[in-house]
Amino acid sequence: MHAWPASEVPALPGKGRDLRIHDTATGGRVTLAPGPVARIYVCGITPYDATHMGHAATYNAFDLVQRVWLDTKRQVHYVQNVTDVDDPLLERAIRDGIDWVGLAERETALFREDMTALRMLPPQHYIGAVEAIPGIVPLVEQLRDSGAAYELEGDIYFSVDADPHFGQVSNYTTELMRHLSAERGGDPERPGKKNPLDPMLWMAAREGEPSWDGASLGAGRPGWHIECVAIALDHLGMGFDVQGGGSDLIFPHHEMGASHAQALTGEFPMAKAYVHAGMVGLDGEKMSKSRGNLVFVSRLRRDGVDPAAIRLALLSHHYRADWEWTDQVLQDAVERLGRWRAAVSRPDGPSADALVEELREALSDDLDAPAALVAVDRWAALQEAEGGTDDSAPGLVSRAVDALLGVAL
Asked: Which tens digit of pLDDT belongs to each residue from 157-174?
């Protein structure tokens, strides 16, 4: 599976700062100082509907992580998956009377278009769950053969008790875990499981549903969490720098994935930092496909909204915050974009060297994009009120905003 084209990231004078970021597992900030190559895995879409603002906000956050690292003169090894076979996808295909493969391909293509328009840097490896199945099967077999997994009526379940570190990503109570498991695709009430929280690794073939050869596992398809584990271990290995996604993935997805990987390798932790973006709401509810309260990137683009304004709307909220999408949020972004473009269109202006350092400091401080926007606002206001004599300043501001915030002026 291919990703989308990369936009050029301008090189800035000097060097950026190491990223200090909130780690869900420890509940505090950690300073990430990767080697020459920083490694990041971000969980991708289940492609049964177009990219909504919740998706865009999440991928925007981890795009900023990449940009901070690139500014420190590191390379970035970024991996993202596509959950291109899963119950919600199959259910949507049945509802709409279309082939599930065609649905997945169509929505993945639209996602690529949206990411390109928003200038999100693409992953080096963009892997579908289906294409990862040959690598998933032996991992499930290994877990089963080591006693970390067991069979139940043809299905294979992971035993959470096999990982002594289980629970250390979310730090949730057992009661909350059971509630979220039932809400987010688990089956804690299924009789015969050793632990109600045990997640499925391999689902035996069901009539009318797609299945693949699972060697000694029998025909079936993989569970949700083991897909990402197989892809991450294959392309990044253990101990990579950031595991990212929306806050709704803390449990069960990232908790279970970490336990799968740790049981497979005997190493801890799977990732040095677990980083999660907040939820975007509309009309008082989390924006989600299941609720249908969605604002789509593609629809805004069709309506003539500049993708740079969409990106500025996302950047105006801290990535970890839960917030509401409104028409006013977008209008404010459109107006801000206009002010910034007017400011950099002049032949000279106030010196921008200090602004570049302000942007670097804000973003290295847990991706404080709102503070970065305010810094550019101050420079633009000074440009409008007083102007300046530095003929390199407008170009430097334009390059810095592009390189660090992903906004083309």
From this structure: 999 999 999 999 999 999
Contacts of 121 (CB under 8 A, 6+ apart): 6, 7, 9, 63, 66, 67, 76, 78, 406
249: DSSP letter: G
Question: What are the two backbone dihedrals, phi and then psi, of residue 188, each rounded to the nearest 5 degrees?
Answer: -65, -20
- Domain range summary for the chain, segments of one domain joined by +: 19-286, 297-405
Residue with tokens 């980083």: 275
Q: What is the CA radius of gyration of the chain?
A: 22
Joined together, the tokens standing for residue 249 give 């993935």
CA nearest to 240, candidates 45, 34, 75 = 34
C-alpha span between 198 and 323 (Å, rounded): 32
For 93, the token pair is 């295909």
Which residues are CB-contacts of 19 (< 8 A; sequence separation ≥ 6)?
A: 31, 32, 65, 68, 69, 363, 364, 367
Could you tell me which CATH number the domain at 19-286 has?
Answer: 3.40.50.620
**What is the pTM for the complete model shown?**
0.96
CA distances from 189 to 21, 87, 179 (A): 37, 18, 11
Q: At what angle do helices 87-96 and 100-117 cross, to 10 degrees?
A: 110
DSSP 70-96: HHTT-EEEEEEEE--SSHHHHHHHHHH
Pick the CATH number of 297-405 from 3.40.50.2300, 1.10.510.10, 1.10.8.60, 1.20.120.640: 1.20.120.640
Query: CA-CA distances (angstroms) from residue 121 to 245, 276, 401?
Result: 16, 18, 15
Cis amide linkage into residue 269, ω under 30° from 0 = yes
Estimate to the nearest angstrom the gap between the alpha carbon of 292 and the chain centroid.
Answer: 21
pLDDT 10s digits, 177-231: 999 999 999 999 999 999 999 999 999 999 999 999 999 999 999 999 999 999 9
